[in-house]
Amino acid sequence: MISISCRNVWKSFGRKAVLRGVNLDVKAGETLVVMGQSGTGKSVLLKHFVGLLVADQGQVLVDGADVARLSRRKLFELRMRFGMVFQGAALFDSLSVEDNVGLALSEHTEMSDEEILGIVDGKLSMVGLAGVGDKFPAQLSGGMKKRVGFARAIAMNPECVLYDEPTTGLDPIMADVINNLIIKLARELKITSVVVTHDLASAYKVADRIAMLHEGSVIFTGTPDEIRQTTVPIVRQFIEGSAEGPIMVGSTE
Predict the structure, then answer these.
(1) CA–CA dist 152, 146 (Å, integer)
(2) pLDDT class of 250 with cuts at 50, 70, 90
(3) What 8-state DSSP symbol labels residue 245?
(4) Angstrom distance (rounded) from CA 138 to CA 44
(5) φ and ψ at residue 77, rounded to 5 degrees
(6) Residue 123: pLDDT over 60
(7) Which SS3 state, helix, strand or coil, does residue 4 take?
(8) pLDDT over 60 at 251, yes or no
(9) 3-state class of 144 per DSSP?
């Protein structure tokens, strides 16, 4: 399991400051949900955890190691410890389900085709998709594509899985299936999970703790019960979904 710490992390793109002094800890083995309006830097923050982006100022520490100071080899090794579930599944349309799930195993290990297929079948079974390995993404529903993305994310037995808006575009029932899957994988694989979402039902169900990002900074961290009871005006407005309050409509960057 992986622990992650952000210490005064700043990141700008041109003149646009996206992260503004983020301080955040992700404990080993927990499921942390990062919430906030669109454009507040949630996905940008995830990319710092694996060194896809480097902070302009501050530190991102994974198990105490400064990601920005890792050698190319060490950074590659770090990334192998993470799995990523993308917002739109990001499957390769020209590859079958089993080839999508087994891609990293094919590229980064010396396993035989039979060994890879055995692992792929196991991961697909874990996400409730046994027997669909020969299908192609165009033959799958939105919820099935999401679950194939989950299987791919865990194919290399990661210590941490990063989820970027995992329930976006799903109906409430399928969204709950995905929520249950996040909980199942965290429990059975004993991994650290970081879930970026603005879906409150999902956040309340899967989170051990919730962090709220606003205008590039973390303004609240606490359990689902604590966020429900908070009196912080910005957080209250967000969880109540109200147009009235300190968050001005159209003010996100």
Answers:
(1) 10
(2) low
(3) S
(4) 29
(5) -65, -40
(6) yes
(7) strand
(8) no
(9) helix
Q: Which of 138, 97, 142 is nearest to 121 (CA)?
A: 97
Torsion, Cα of 247, 199, 30, 10 (10° steps): -40
**What global pTM score does this model have?**
0.89
Taking Cα atoms as reference points, which of 217, 215, 214 lies closest to residue 239? 214
- C-alpha 241/C-alpha 235 separation (Å) is 10
Q: List pLDDT tens digits, range 151-185.
A: 999 999 999 999 998 888 888 998 898 999 999 99
Element (H, E) at 3: none
Nearest to residue 32, comparing CAs of 219, 203, 232? 203
Neighbour-count burial of 22, counting CB atoms closer than 10 A to its CB (0-12 exposed, 13-18 middle, 19+ buried): buried
Between CA 97 and CA 107 the distance in angstroms is 16
Q: What angle (nearest 5°) sits at the alpha carbon of residue 102, between those of residues 96 and 108?
A: 140
Q: Count of CB atoms within 10 A of residue 164's CB?
A: 21
- 234 membership: H or E segment, kind and range: helix 233-240
The pLDDT value recorded for residue 183 is 94
Residue partners of 168: CB distance under 8 A and separation at least 6: 87, 88, 197, 199
Q: Is 102 helix (H, G, I), strand (E, B) or coil?
A: coil
Tokens of 10: 């700043």
Structure-block tokens of residue 49: 């955890």
Round the CA-based radius of gyration of the chain to a whole number and report it: 18
The one-character DSSP state at 69 is G
The residue written with tokens 């800890």 in the block is 25
Contact 131, 117 (CB under 8 A): no
